[in-house]
Design a protein that fits this description.
This protein has 5 helices and 5 strands. It has 177 residues and is an alpha+beta fold. The chain has a single domain, classed as 3-Layer(aba) Sandwich (Cytidine Deaminase, domain 2), CATH 3.40.140. Strand 3, helix 5 and strand 4 form a beta-alpha-beta unit. The chain starts with 7 loop residues before the first helix and ends in an 8-residue tail after the last strand.
């Protein structure tokens, strides 16, 4: 409310020139995106491998995650955070889409990765139709997320697309450097 001595024009000018600052506090909620055996659903199935041996290649990782993705009727895009030794430290379902697409934005991916203090990420999603061949959109998203990760210091180690009893690994195909 303006002071009586200020004109309406002065009050409006001050409002236009004022800045809004937001203070954000990150709070680690035990059980949210962290390694706990009682975590429900898809991520809970993935996180039973927490603090296990380092993830050494895509085939080892595929064997860990394939059962969690069986019989899903829509695309699920999941990130798995790794520590500096490439051990699983957390995971999150960042998008659930339709039969043929899931909308994924780097903001959601890296907000979660940074909150869990991930040094690296493995991205994965399923193709409910069964064919893990990446679409042009899959290639574009992988490039965009890899570039964002490089900028933020969170390396994208791989992006797996899961199909019927097979998978596609961007790292194995030399797409990721």
């Amino acid at each position: 409310m303006p002071k009586r001595s200020e004109s309406k024009a002065t009050t409006e000018r001050k409002a236009r020139h004022s800045l809004c600052f937001y203070k954000m506090k990150l709070v680690r909620d035990e059980g949210f995106g962290t390694c706990q055996e009682d975590s429900p659903g898809l991520v809970g199935n993935l996180l039973t491998q927490c603090a296990g041996p380092p993830i050494s290649d895509s085939q080892v990782f595929y064997r860990l995650v394939r059962d969690a993705f069986q019989e899903l009727d829509r695309e699920h895009f999941v990130i798995v955070g790794l520590n500096a030794k490439h051990q699983i430290i957390g995971g999150s379902v960042v998008a659930i889409g339709s039969l043929t697409t899931a909308i994924v934005h780097p903001r959601e991916i890296f907000k979660t990765a940074i909150t869990m203090n991930a040094a690296a990420l493995i991205l994965l999603h399923n193709h409910p139709g069964g064919d893990p061949t990446p679409s042009p959109e899959d290639h574009a998203l992988t490039k965009r997320l890899t570039d964002c990760g490089e900028l933020l210091g969170v390396r994208v180690l791989d992006h797996l697309i899961l199909g019927n009893d097979r998978y596609y690994s961007f790292a194995d195909q030399g797409v990721l450097s």
